[in-house]
Write a structure and sequence with these properties.
The complex is a heterotrimer of chains A (243), B (679) and C (140). By secondary structure, chain B is α/β, with parallel strands linked by helices. Chain B has 25 helices and 27 strands. Helix content of chain B is 33%, strand content 18%. Chain C is globular and about 40 Å long. Chains A and B meet through strand 2 and helix 1 of A and strand 1, strand 2, strand 3, helix 1 and helix 7 of B.
Chain lengths: 243, 679, 140
């Protein structure tokens, strides 16, 4: 990220180019941007990665979507304020090349509050939030682990409302698809124009996945439980890599 | 191999979000990344913004000039195209006079280009006949607020919505038409602000609103006057403000005295208690903002409607302070700018009056030419003049009047009768079919320039890719035409030079230059180089001194329902398509979301007509008929139907009425009489 | 509302086992409540979680997914997928405030006509007890 025209812009800088005034305080989702630019580049790419970005890249590497050999990670440690805003419990990258080493947050307050509510209250809360949804697809466009070319949410079959807001199915389907991939970068929540607390929902579902399968996304060496048999063997046949 | 990120402004609505266009080395547009530090968008975009790159490099793009030969449009060279235009303009001007020619500027083109279009009309051709699509949307705002306040623009700014404690929205489907402004209203809502929506339809915002009032289309002065009467009767008006900052209050008081809640209910259908609640909440909340759009402006008494809203704000003193004001949400990416740049028949750049001899002589000196005297033709009048044979030539820059104007059958007749129709466009359209010369133009991603958004911010548009084929930027086309028509003052080497010239002549833009706006958000008035721009208007006094109350009365719409045509047709938009669809229908993800035309019919009304959801129906009015699918819903009040105007295959404007507001000439697109029957 | 409410229930039954089991229950004239709409699929794994989410969000009161017993899937590991997916779907709907008992997974073989009857009857009664899906009365 660097300064441009009075703003902070993401930038892909080639060898020999002036890198400009680098900024690390504005959290662009660089892995997501990398996915767009990747096919239009050659050679090795160095990328500023926070801990969540490292995990996102791990998910992309293990699905063969990005060649690990082409990527060099520059570890970016998030500031205390960024950790607080993300309610991040794992903020320090493997190697901190730039930025600070911050202590993790103590969990998501809203998530705790919701888990203590009755299901009526919880439903009322989420329906109230989803009513604001404008189908901007920011959550999918900016998500580093949302990689499907043909998004199922664009099909009338599953999201049948002809206008806005889309019904619950949009958000429920998305929650399922991300359950084994989300690395809690918080970009969905930051780019939502309706300020829906999407990160809280993601964290809640990740807790379920941990409870059901003892699985946490973000590790190159582990396979999603949705892609293995009950005996942890890879699923046979011409399966797609999604879920 | 690399990818660049070019910061530019969105070509869709008037919110003016900034984002980065991703461009590969070989000139391919890959996608859009929101700009997280942008003051207006805050790093968020709507679905159109995320797809703003999708239409740019579509194969349908016009790449070569076309000329009419033997009944069809054939490819030609720029030289031949210009020769033909110059020859015809000269011939027509000599034979019929310069006022037989009209130029349509473009709310989709940059400020620099619009400045050049009006200069082309006034200096190179010799007529004040220059207008554009603002005539169809906010012309009544410009004339209404000009009279009430002295300035026709949004009084406050978009970020201020976040901190409002009451947001009063009428005639605007904000979450669909201005999604990022809607996002601000949602932020206010999450903070506890009261949202009041007055709209004949149930919209995404009205479903969340605390108070949602549904009025019969065309009855707005009644409920606004009703609210004002309640506010005065209950002593909720701001007496200080009225005394010191306004005039004509007694006339207003007299005008509203008969609009009791009972009478208002009988005219509008709004329940008494709801009207009283709305009035009390709006009046008692200090930080109360009014936001409005087409539901208020597109009426045969649109100017009066706008003045009514101004009355409401002034009566409560909700103006000239942060998070208050009267906020028209301008539609096009640069409709504010095309008005600011003088693309209007009675106003030079900066809203300086053509009829004022001192002003005219200032421009004559600057441009080195004697300028035409009288008021020019508005777009809607130009069509009527063409129909009666008085207008002979129309030079259209980026406007699709065959779909956006009311009463399309008349527009078609008008175009067919013209001796010269020149269209500069990015795609072939329903309008370019009638052209004698078609010029391929560059779109927003292919040129430099500025757009002025609805809250008066002058924002940079930056070139990311080259235009396709032989297409050229409109500013280059206008300059070439000006030169070839023998005029001087068209030798510009860059859009920045054009802005510099415009700034010297336009007091509200004098402090604007490319270097200054490159790194900051500057809103006009910006009267000098070091001025930081103006956020809130009318803080100490109104632009015209004292705010003027307008004692206006409810008047029925121009066309009322009858036995033959029992339903009120109101037109509008949906989130996924944009205006005449030239850009959105060629963007796969947008087209996919809303691919078909439809008519919204109330459940009860549909049952009586025995029409099922999804059934094909014919909707007709005194002017034409279209067939499309019925969408049976409870989201429109009984007695009214709604059709979005984006779809050429079922053009809503085939049905609409070109009844014009006498002051602003805006057509009554929001009300006409129609009937629905099984197809 | 709790008294006499007629739930709408979908039952996705796989062709090789549970649908055959359903057939058997019918042919054996075993009594079953009438509210269940049976949808035959080739394998329980072809029931994409999207269908379950859509059903719940559109107000369906209960969704049953019935597959072959583990080890008996006609496509070898299809029901393994289902066994992983459905519990996750249940947790997700619970997270947004819908009772997770509205989605149920069970295994019924072609010979288990009685088990089919038992599962259906139990499920319908459970849903009757839960009442209508609250999303039925929510207007988005």
């Amino acid at each position: 990220m660097r300064e441009e025209h009075g703003n902070v812009a993401p930038a892909l800088v080639s060898k020999g180019e002036d890198i400009g005034d680098v900024r690390i305080d504005v959290p662009y989702q660089l892995v997501n941007i990398l996915e767009t630019v990747y096919p239009w580049t050659s050679g090795k790419i160095a990328i500023l990665t926070r801990r969540c970005d490292e995990k996102a890249l791990a998910e992309l590497f293990k699905r063969g979507l990005i060649d690990e050999a082409r990527i060099a990670m520059i570890g970016l440690g998030c500031s205390k304020e960024q950790v607080r805003l993300c309610r991040c419990e794992d903020p320090v990258p493997t190697k901190v090349d730039v930025g600070e080493v911050s202590a993790p947050a103590k969990g998501d307050e809203l998530e705790a509050k919701l888990s203590k509510m009755s299901s009526e209250e919880r439903l009322k809360f989420w329906v109230g939030q989803f009513k604001k949804c404008n189908k901007c697809f920011a959550c999918t466009s900016n998500c580093p682990v949302c990689f499907c070319d043909d998004c199922v949410l664009e099909e009338r079959t599953f999201v049948s409302e002809p206008g806005i807001p889309p019904g619950m199915s949009f958000h429920l389907i998305r929650s399922f698809h991300l359950a084994d991939k989300c690395i809690e970068c918080g970009e969905c929540e930051r780019s939502c124009p309706a300020s829906i607390p999407l990160l809280t929902l993601r964290k809640t579902v990740l807790k379920d996945v941990k409870e059901l399968f003892d699985y946490t996304p973000g590790d190159k060496k582990t396979t999603s439980p949705l892609l293995t048999t009950l005996d942890d063997q890879p699923l046979v046949g011409d399966e797609c890599n999604e879920c | 191999m690399s990818v660049k990120h070019v910061l530019t402004t969105c070509p869709y609505c008037g919110t003016g979000c900034n984002f980065f266009l991703q461009v590969s080395d070989d000139g391919r547009l890959l996608g859009v990344v929101p700009c997280k530090t942008d003051e207006i968008s805050l790093g968020r975009l709507c679905i159109k913004g995320y797809n703003a790159h999708a239409f740019v490099q579509h194969p349908d793009r016009l790449k070569h000039p076309l000329i009419r030969e033997g009944g069809g449009l054939k490819q030609t060279t720029w030289d031949k195209a210009f020769d033909k235009i110059v020859h015809e303009v000269t011939r027509i001007r000599e034979k019929y006079g310069p006022d037989s020619i009209a130029v349509l500027a473009s709310a989709k083109c940059t400020n620099e280009e619009n400045y050049l279009f009006q200069k082309l009309a006034r200096v190179a051709i010799g007529t004040n006949n220059v207008d554009h699509c603002a005539r169809l949307c906010h012309a009544s705002t410009v004339s209404g607020l000009l009279t009430s306040f002295g300035s026709g623009a949004m009084t406050n700014t978009i970020p201020e919505f976040d901190n409002a404690d009451c947001v009063f929205v009428t005639g605007s489907n904000t979450l669909e038409a201005h999604p990022m402004i809607g996002a601000r209203i949602l932020t206010a809502y999450d903070r506890g602000a009261k949202i009041i929506v007055v709209d004949p339809r149930e919209t995404p915002l009205s479903r969340i609103a605390h108070l949602s009032l549904h009025q019969r289309p065309g009855t707005d002065i009644a409920w606004i006057n009703g609210m004002i009467k309640i506010i005065i009767d209950e002593g909720l008006h701001d007496q200080e403000f009225i005394k010191n900052r306004t005039t004509l209050f007694d006339q207003l008081k007299e005008a509203v005295k008969d609009y009791t809640p009972e009478k208002v209910e009988s005219i509008t259908g709004i329940p008494k208690k709801d009207l009283i609640s709305a009035a009390r909440i709006y009046a008692k909340t200090e930080k109360a903002m009014i936001a409005y759009a087409m539901g208020i402006t597109q009426h045969s008494n649109g100017t009066n409607l706008v003045k009514s809203l101004a009355n409401l704000a002034m009566v409560c003193g909700h103006i000239g302070k942060e998070s208050t004001g009267v906020n028209p949400l301008r539609g096009q990416c640069n409709v504010q700018g095309s008005c600011d740049s003088g693309g209007l028949p009675d106003l030079y750049p900066g809203y300086q009056r053509v009829l004022d001899p001192d002003v005219r002589s200032k421009f004559e000196k600057a441009w080195g030419k004697e300028l035409p005297g009288g008021k020019g033709l508005t777009l809607t009048c130009a069509i009527k003049e063409a129909m009666i044979g008085k207008l002979k030539a129309l030079i259209i820059f980026g406007e699709n009047i065959m779909l956006s104007d009311p009463n399309i059958a008349h527009v078609e007749e008008a175009l067919k009768g013209l001796e010269l129709v020149v269209v500069a466009e990015i795609f072939p359209t329903e309008t370019s079919k009638f052209a004698h010369v078609v010029l391929p133009a560059a779109c927003y991603a292919e040129k430099d320039g500025t757009f002025t958004n609805t809250d008066r911010a002058v924002r940079r548009v930056r070139k990311a890719v080259d235009p396709p084929g032989e297409a050229r930027a409109d500013w280059q086309i206008a300059c070439e035409l000006g030169k070839r028509l023998g005029a001087s003052g068209f030798d510009f080497r860059s859009p920045s030079e054009v802005m510099d010239e415009m700034a010297t002549l336009t007091p509200i833009y004098t402090g604007i230059n490319y270097q200054k706006i490159d790194g900051q958000v500057i809103r006009w008035p910006c009267p000098s180089k070091d001025h930081p721009g103006t956020k809130v208007l009318h803080t100490q006094k109104f632009t015209k001194g004292l705010g003027e109350f307008a004692p206006v009365q409810h008047a029925p719409p121009a066309e009322e329902t009858s036995e033959d045509y029992p339903l009120i047709l109101t037109t509008g938009r949906n989130l996924f398509q944009y205006h005449t669809g030239t850009m959105t229908r060629r963007s796969p993800k947008l087209e996919r979301e809303a691919p078909e035309p439809y008519v919204e019919i109330n459940n009860g009304d549909a049952r009586k007509l025995e029409i099922a959801d999804g059934e094909r129906v014919m909707v007709s009015s005194r002017r034409g008929a279209i067939t499309l699918k019925a969408r049976v819903t409870d989201r429109i009040i009984s007695g009214s139907i709604f059709i979005p105007f984006h779809y050429a295959e079922a053009a809503a404007n085939r049905l609409t009425n070109a009844a014009l507001d006498p002051i602003s000439n805006i057509p009554e697109l929001k009300v006409c009489a129609a009937k629905v029957q099984k197809a | 509302m709790m008294a006499e409410f007629d739930p709408t229930i979908l039952a996705f039954c796989c062709n090789w086992c549970s649908y055959a089991g359903a057939d058997l229950a019918g042919v054996s004239r075993l009594q079953m409540p009438p509210n269940v709409h049976v949808i035959r699929v080739m394998c329980s794994a072809s029931v994409k979680p999207e269908y379950l989410m859509k059903a719940v969000s559109q107000g369906v009161d209960g969704v049953l997914v019935l597959g072959c017993h583990i080890g008996d899937c006609h496509y070898m590991t299809g029901n393994h997928r289902t066994a992983k997916r459905v519990p996750l779907v249940k947790k997700i709907i619970r997270d947004v405030g819908i009772d997770e008992r509205r989605v149920r997974l069970d295994w019924v073989s072609a010979a288990e006509g009685e088990k089919f009857q038992k599962v259906i009857t139990e499920f319908v009664n459970e849903i009757k007890g839960l009442g209508p899906n609250p999303l039925r009365s929510v207007r988005f």
